[in-house]
Amino acid sequence: MSYGTAAALQSALYQHLLADAGVSALVGSDVYDAVPSGTVPSLYVSFGHETALPAGDKTGNGARHRFTVSVVSESGGFLGAKAVAVAISDALDGAPPALMRGRIVHMRFLKAEARRVGSGAKRRIDLRYEARVEDE
Prior knowledge:
Elements (H helix, E strand, L loop, with lengths): L5 H14 L1 H7 L3 E2 L10 E12 L6 E13 L5 H14 L10 E14 L6 E13 L1
Parallel strand pairs: 1-2
Antiparallel strand pairs: 2-3, 3-5, 4-5
Helix pairs in contact: 2-3
């Protein structure tokens, strides 16, 4: 197993979502690794939980990265958050982004979970993906 591609994977996914016209039309540049302090946008995307599992073989090191991309909305209802989640899904459904280290062999959607957060109007959709990455 190699965790060596973890930073490269997250960086590539981040840049890929920022560059996607569908995602940026809905959230602009509000795609975060860590939500900024102070005033938080009412609709944004953030990277969340990741699990890496061994996937190397005798030809080289590799890992399966299961990661979460979250959409958070302060407005009532799920429709706005779902529009962003759809744009993210469309962006990640095509050719995988190039990494600065290693390469994505395969990436697939695993599941999505939409839920209310707390007792207010906040909504959150967690999109789970798995990327099989070889460390070249």
